[in-house]
Amino acid sequence: MIFRQLFEPISSTYTYLLGSEETGEALLIDPVIVTQDRDLAELARLGLKLAWTVDTHVHADHITGAMELRKRTGCKIAAPAPEGVACADLPLQEGQPLQVGGIILRPLHTPGHTSGHFAYLVGDRVFTGDALLIDGCGRTDFQNGDSDTLYDSVHRKLFALPDDTLVYPAHDYQNRHVSSIAQEKARNPRLGQGKSVEEFRAIMAGLNLPYPNFIDYAVPGNKQCGVCPDHLPDNLNKYCPPMTHSPQG
User: Fold this and answer.
1) In what residue span(s) does the Metallo-beta-lactamase domain sit (predicted)?
2) d(CA 56, CA 114)
3) Distance of CA 201 to CAs 133, 165, 187, 207, 213, Å?
4) Which domains can be identified in the chain, with CATH numbers?
5) d(CA 22, CA 29)
6) DSSP-derived secondary structure for 142-153
7) CA-CA-CA-CA dihedral for 20, 24, 28, 32, to nearest 10
8) DSSP-assigned letters across all residues of 58-103
9) Are 53 and 102 in contact (CB under 8 A)?
């Protein structure tokens, strides 16, 4: 499998490129609209044709690149069925893998950050979206999030994976790239270290996080597979123009 981890610095989002050496097809997990040119250039450099975009959830901090990439390449869009993204070509369901050449992507419904959030298991790697971050997790106070539900998702589905499974999150804010299930069980200060659900509930309730800057534009735009509003306030206009270069890509 051809693999690239690509970083978008505005929302600190990781996009993952997975390419099949057998067929030359590829998929992108969590593409971002501002880095679509970069992603297409990387696909061209590797000699790959984009077959699918796959989002882990309806994002609140950036606009997905799914719709624009479909317009430009003819690829198809996959999204978690519980998120109710009507424009997706394939509503993904747990227990129904998506295969691209030799790549088999196994969806895992991991609600809690959002009610329809999915993680994706590919061989010895799991792409955890916002459900499990390196030494952290996504917030649970909007989009039908729930701390008890997230605790259950992580412990019952993600922490049940083999310890050496590599963890690739949707975001990192400290220049970290990869973890493992063993590391998160041992070190994650919110969900690991033997934390109880009661302790996790208290941690999440005490975060007192500000209202997300871009959520009122991102959520409706991502429900349409990635549509930027015509006019953004000056303080938010960086979220939609193309970015051809970024760290790790």
Assistant:
1) 12-171
2) 10
3) 17, 26, 18, 10, 24
4) 2-239 (3.60.15.10)
5) 19
6) STT--HHHHHHH
7) 150
8) --SSS-BSHHHHHHHH--EEEEEGGGT-TT-SEEE-TT--EEETTE
9) no
pLDDT digits (tens, 9 = 90+) for 42-54: 999 999 999 999 9
How many CB atoms neighbour CB 71 within 10 A? 11
Q: Residue 7 has which token pair?
A: 């970083």
Average pLDDT over residues 122-140: 98
Please, what's the largest Cα pairwise distance for the chain? Answer: 50
Which residue(s) pair with 203 in the sheet? none
**Number of separate helices (H) and strands (E) present in the chain:** 6, 12
Amino acid occupying residue 78: A
How many other β-carbons are positioned within 10 Å of the β-carbon of residue 2? 15
pLDDT at residue 248 tops 90: no
For the CA atoms of 184, 190, 195, 197, what is the dihedral angle to 10 degrees? -120
Supply the pLDDT for residue 21.
Answer: 95
Residues in the chain: 249
Helix (H, G, I), strand (E, B) or coil at 39: helix
Q: Which two tokens stand for residue 191?
A: 């969900």
- What pTM did the predictor assign? 0.96
